[in-house]
Design a protein that fits this description.
This is Glycoside hydrolase family 57. 26% of the residues lie in helices and 26% in strands. With 685 residues, it is α+β, with helices and mostly antiparallel strands. The chain has three domains: 302 residues, 7-stranded beta/alpha barrel (Alpha-Beta Barrel), CATH 3.20.110.20; 78 residues; 275 residues, Beta-galactosidase, Chain A, domain 5, CATH 2.70.98. The protein has a nine-stranded antiparallel β-sheet, with no helix packed on it. Strands 1, 2, 3, 8 and 9 form a five-stranded parallel β-sheet that branches. The longest helix has 22 residues. The protein is globular. The N and C termini lie far apart (65 Å).
């Protein structure tokens, strides 16, 4: 039905048979009760609908009910149904390396071509998690537009016009590349779900839609979320809406009939939104990200990037395993001989190793995952690790033995002294003071070729006049919060010197301490290198009955007197080939405080190659970790002050939210190791 209307409605139903809480045995029911009614709507009402699914979901549907695939292909040809792509698996792009994002989109396109005989031109960003580094991947994969969420992205862009949400815009990256964007809206799709679940009437919902009508025609996303929540309940939450089976798709049908009959409304396909070239409110060039929100996520604040990285069902461990496999694959592909062996293994085991890694990095294995599904996932993860490790083992690696002998020559290259509570070490490149009364907290760290004053260290109580910052802020420490207990930290423990405390190696000196806390032991080693301006912080955690609300380590406090506030920045890789860079000169405060008693974090950085840079126009500090050793995520804590600032980086090893299975945590032992390298970067030299 074609008609002039003031509100042009578009919708995208997201299909996902990897849904974390849906058991495999229920997948045929999902297709029958959720996916078939969706296709029937298009055919019965002649209504325009966008459908998005991962390549994996299409493979599963084809396996279970190939007739549904045939019907979808037929409806696509009628021009009333438009297929939207997303990749092979529902990967959270800012949390995986660039190569994995490339493979996910490439393999997804191949599956779309094989099953649907099309190559989609519009991509729905997985879980609506966007970072600047993702844009280039989608452009290279042939996508011509992206679907992203308006609500959270616009939150930190107060200069944006409210009406821009009703029109397509351009997303622009730091290389001035751009891509058209079509807005999704979390409030809108939640409203739609609440109407369908009978939380309010048809009349109330129509009244809400009429509030969106402007003086001239404009677009509005009536829906942009899960199809599995209608006439089915995935079982993620205890308080899901009461299911009246067979009634909810009928309720959607009733709504669509009313909208089709009302001259104020008309349905369009998502691609038709891009034809809004006449409005002056269309196609503004926008930077979607901000220093306060480098990675945007859909829905309310509790729904943030940490749910797939730091909480959930053992997220840190399984992400670490995925990074290990990724590291193996990258090394294998860099060696022609190993690449030949890889190809033989893939043929032998009938497996595409990159495709399998994409599957294992799917977001649904990291949240409300059903038990049998998680056990099957664990087996596939171990199998892929074993295969890639076995291939890599074919390479004859010879390791150089490190000389651990002490010698007066090695001692002479690092000068050591004590001054009260400080252990002071000096090389030709750096000087560092460690506080033996505060668990070897870094009191000061000077890189001689960078600046003659400390760049990081301890800011004592009273350094800031602002009462909100009336505390001691250490560097190199660990903070653990456990429900019902006082904050646990390693910075309130005094070190007793012994012959084993300071060890001289051929290339470094190591200062060791062992700190006993209520849940176990923290072994901490500071490594100072002789021939390069670098220190390493190495932690070994050995805990029992460990159920943290939050677990953060490698905390670094920056000296505001060492950096130019006007050019202050941070940068890291968030799934892209180049780092995302953010200026802090005009940034609002960035907090690491919890959202609520049950949600311990607001956000974090993807840091997908393990390198975080903080600095100004002349100099910067590199904080480097290896994600294949431990997939920790850094957090930025920044407060702008008059003529100064407060800036810390904290590396999170674990957070809590509603995806955390607390009943499973705290059982048995917890052991892990974390290493952080710190070194300078001098610019314009």
């Amino acid at each position: 039905m074609n008609k002039e209307a003031n509100l042009l409605l578009y919708q995208i139903f997201h299909l996902n048979l990897a849904y974390s809480s849906i058991p495999e045995k229920d997948l045929p029911t999902v297709i029958k009760d959720c996916y078939w009614p969706l296709l029937n709507l298009i055919e019965d009402l002649d209504v325009k609908i966008g459908i998005e699914a991962s390549g994996y979901t299409l493979e599963k549907i084809k396996e279970i009910d190939p007739s549904w695939i045939r019907e979808l292909k037929s409806l696509i040809k009628t021009k009333n149904c438009e297929f939207i792509g997303s990749g092979y698996a529902q990967i959270i792009g800012p949390l995986v390396p660039a190569k994995v994002n490339e493979q996910n989109l490439s393999i997804g396109n191949k599956v779309y071509k094989d099953i649907l005989e099309i190559k989609p031109e519009i991509a729905y960003i997985n879980e609506q998690v966007y970072s600047q580094g993702l844009m280039n991947h989608y452009l290279n994969a042939g996508y011509k537009a992206l679907v992203v969420e308006w609500n959270n992205i616009s939150l930190f862009h107060l200069d944006w016009e409210k009406d821009w949400q009703y029109y397509p815009q351009y997303a622009v990256d730091q290389q001035n590349k751009s891509v058209p964007i079509i807005w999704n809206n979390s409030i809108t799709f939640q409203k739609f779900q609440r109407y369908v679940h009978r939380e309010f009437s048809l009349e109330e919902y129509l009244a809400y839609l009429k509030l969106q009508i402007g003086k001239t025609p404009r677009f509005f996303p009536i829906y942009g979320s899960d199809a599995e929540v209608f006439d089915f309940r995935p079982g993620r939450y205890d308080q899901e809406a009461v299911l009246r089976k067979g009634k909810e798709w009928e309720r959607i049908k009733t709504l669509f009939k009313s909208l089709l009959e009302d001259p104020l409304f008309n349905f369009v396909l998502p691609s038709e939104v891009l034809k809004a070239t006449k409005s002056k409110k269309s196609f503004n060039q926008l930077c979607l990200e901000s220093p306060e929100q480098p990675i945007s996520v859909k829905k309310q604040e509790k729904y943030n990037i940490t749910r797939w990285a730091l909480s959930g069902r053992d997220d840190v461990r399984i992400n670490t395993e995925c990074f290990k496999i990724y590291k193996f694959l990258m090394k294998i592909e860099a060696d022609p001989k190993l690449l030949l062996i890889k190809n033989k293994y893939e043929e032998k085991y009938k497996i595409n190793l990159w495709k399998e890694l994409c599957f294992l990095w799917d977001s649904d294995f990291r949240t409300h995952i059903e038990e049998k599904k998680f056990q099957a996932f664990q087996k596939r993860l171990q199998r892929l690790f074993d295969i890639t490790e076995k291939i890599f083992a074919k390479k004859n690696l010879s390791k150089k033995r490190e000389n651990h002998q002490r010698s007066s020559l090695s001692k002479s290259k690092i000068r050591f002294s004590q001054s009260g509570k400080l252990l002071i070490f000096e090389t030709k490149d750096l000087e560092i003071g460690l506080n033996k009364e505060r668990g070897l907290a870094i009191d000061f760290l000077v890189f001689e070729n960078l600046l003659k004053i400390p760049v990081i260290g301890t800011l004592p109580h009273g350094y800031f006049q602002n009462i909100l910052l009336g505390d001691d802020f250490y560097s190199g420490n660990t903070i653990i919060e456990i429900l019902g207990q006082s904050t646990i930290t390693d910075s309130d423990r005094e070190l007793s010197l012994s012959p084993e405390t300071i060890l001289y190696k051929s290339d470094s000196v190591q200062i060791k301490t062992e700190i006993k806390i209520s849940v176990g032991i923290i072994k901490k080693t500071i490594i100072i290198y002789k021939k390069e301006p670098r220190i390493d912080l190495f932690y070994e955690f050995d805990f029992k009955n460990f159920s943290p609300v939050l677990f953060r380590s490698g905390i670094i406090t920056f000296n505001p007197g060492a950096f130019d506030k006007e050019t202050l920045f941070y940068s890291c890789f968030n799934g892209g080939k180049i780092p995302d860079m953010f200026s802090l000169s005009n940034s609002q405060p960035i907090t690491t405080d919890p959202v609520s008693l049950s949600i311990s974090a607001r956000s974090a950085l993807g840091n997908t190659n393990g390198i975080l840079e903080v600095g100004d126009k002349d100099k910067s500090i590199i904080l480097k970790t290896d994600m294949a050793d431990l997939a920790t995520l850094p957090m930025i804590n920044f407060i702008p002050l008059k003529d100064s600032f407060f800036l810390r980086v904290l590396f999170s090893l674990g957070e809590t939210d509603e995806t955390s299975l607390l009943s499973k945590r705290g059982e048995g032992n917890f052991k892990c190791q974390f290493n952080l390298s710190i070194y300078p970067k001098i610019k314009n030299k």
